[in-house]
Amino acid sequence: MKSKPSIGLMVVLMMFPQIIETIYSPALPAIAQGFGVPMALAGETLSIYFLAFAFGVVGWGIAADKLGRRKAMLAGLAVYAFATIGALYADNFTWLLAMRALSAFGAAVGSVVTQTILRDSFSKQELSTVFSYMGIGIAISPALGLLIGSVLASRYSYHGVFVLLAMLALMLLLLSLRYLKETQPKKVPTVAGSQTLLSLAGRMIKDAAIWRSAVVVCGFNIMLFSYYLHGPFLFAKLGFSSMQFGLSGLVLASATIVGSQVNKHLLRTKRKPTQIIQLASWLSLLGAIGVYILGESVLILLPIMLVVIGFSLAIPNVLAGALHAYQAQVGSAGALFGLSYYLMIGFAMTLVAKMGDLGLVLLIVSLMMVVISAINHCSVRGENCNKPKA
């Protein structure tokens, strides 16, 4: 029997793309000052990160099918390590942006190839439970990264952040070299060329269920990252330090743990994933209403916790079932799936930054999630919404 991959290693590899992003964020003011650029220009590294990440998801997903999961993961981590070391020695902002884009491209391997390994190794029934552990890591990682980044930026400026990112890159590469095993099934056909990939893309473009799943993943990520985008400015306006904003991540981390435990309980009681996603959407809407009503107050942390719980419920259940129909080309399908929602996240976050109203953003997005999750519950499982219940 084929051995299962280490869940601990999988969680770490799934976490690191988001944790490195939020470790970097508190250093933006110091970067702007150190490189002599406006804060707005320094902040554009966020959109560059998501765009480069989206194309990295495609590249490493295809590589996972052609080269194997292990080789693709090691190659991506090597690219990430090179880029983080390059950023450490950057002497101008243009070079820093280039290394930032390259590091995002490499870091994308942690998202798409880790998901591919899990889909290789676990049955559809097991995946929801496995992805619930992944969900903890995905949701905790921004909070943890924010706290670590705040400490490093306040004590060592952006140099301390870059040193930690370089050390993290090398550690992940060494761990994967030692413990990561190949999981690609030998009897599953791989993507043979561009024509096959185009054919797969055409099939997925016509798949309404895939689009709904991508929008749900995008929506819950937008809600989570909107707080990390607007939060620092709100806390500063209320007279709190960046360190105190970083500590708010601990509150949200506790909400993540609650969401994960609720998710596991609901799965044990045989709740359908689509039902859990619906619950997550309604919780997020309730949290959005609370944020909108409270406005500029530190008390928004309480309703934000509902949004984070919703994230912890929704994401593992969406990811677990999204690509079940594409098992023969799961690496490339995962790449295209990831490309779709990361591009949406990147463009949406540009709009979120311009709106400047966290409560309004959360209201709009959570309402969309409620509608889409209702459609998803009726359609993905082949249920007839119009059929009266006995």
Could you provide a short overview of the structure?
The protein is 82% helix and 0% strand. The chain has one domain: Growth Hormone, Chain: A. The longest helix has 56 residues, at 124-179.
What report would you give on this structure?
This protein has 390 residues and is mainly alpha-helical. The chain has a single domain (7-379), classed as MFS general substrate transporter like domains (Growth Hormone, Chain: A). It has 15 helices and no strands. It has helices at 7-24, 28-35, 39-43, 45-67, 69-88, 93-107, 109-121, 124-179, 194-205, 208-237, 242-268, 273-294, 301-321, 330-355, 358-379. Helix 10 runs antiparallel to helix 13 and helix 10 runs antiparallel to helix 15 (358-379). The chain is globular and about 55 Å long. It starts with 6 loop residues before the first helix and ends in an 11-residue tail after the last helix.
Secondary structure blueprint with pairings:
Elements: H1 7-24, H2 28-35, H3 39-43, H4 45-67, H5 69-88, H6 93-107, H7 109-121, H8 124-179, H9 194-205, H10 208-237, H11 242-268, H12 273-294, H13 301-321, H14 330-355, H15 358-379
Helix pairs in contact: 1-7, 1-8, 4-5, 4-6, 4-7, 4-14, 5-6, 5-7, 5-8, 7-14, 8-11, 8-13, 9-14, 10-13, 10-14, 10-15, 11-13, 12-13, 12-15
Strand count, sense and closure of the main sheet?
Answer: none
The level of helicity is over 70%
The CATH architecture classification is Up-down Bundle
Please name the fourth-level CATH homologous superfamily. Answer: MFS general substrate transporter like domains
Mean pLDDT: 83
Secondary-structure-derived class: mainly alpha
Strand coverage percent = under 5%
Q: What is the CA-atom radius of gyration, in angstroms?
A: 20 Å
**CATH fold-level name:** Growth Hormone, Chain: A
CATH class: Mainly Alpha
**How many helices does DSSP assign?**
15
Weakly predicted, low-confidence segments: 386-390
Q: Whole-Å distance between the termini? A: 44 Å
Number of strands: 0
Number of domains: 1
What is the approximate shape? globular
Q: What is the string of helix and strand elements? A: HHHHHHHHHHHHHHH
